[in-house]
Design a protein that fits this description.
The structure is a single chain. The chain is mainly alpha-helical and 173 residues long. The strands form 2 sheets. It has a 3-stranded parallel sheet.
Length: 173
Amino acid sequence: MIQHFVERSMKRGPASEKLVEKINADFNTQAEKAYANVQPIAGAEEALKQMKAQGLMLATTTGFGRTLEDQVLKHLGWEKYFITTVSSDDVVDGRPAPYMIYHAMEAAHVNDVKDVVAVGDTPLDLQAANNSGVRGAIGVWSGAAPQEKLRKEKYSQLLPSVASLPELLKKSY
């Protein structure tokens, strides 16, 4: 995304690449500070435990870089819940491209998009889910985007919180 906006204002080349690197490094430094003591969404960890107990394979994808993703998961102690974690560093194109979802499928050895349900808290998450062709695109407004923004996208379900996921997945998927 940074590269996209830099290239809108200057020609691609060594100078633009240097500026992208500088902005990206500053962003990552600021994000790592901001998320250093991140607190979990109420009910999220219990939901992860329940979904694992249901036999679901869980993966996480994020538009943040690998360092920040690892930092957050380690801080929360949640690494153990996920088969794989995919960051924007792992793919060429981030959301709304479907590649993070496909990368997670590859790591989990899941061959059919109809076996996958994607859950996200931003319009770009829902767009990526729809672009991937997965079975379900579930939006939750307990995270980054409010319900009104998620409603503007194509979705299979909208939930107030990730805490509601285990029951929904047990019944509907």
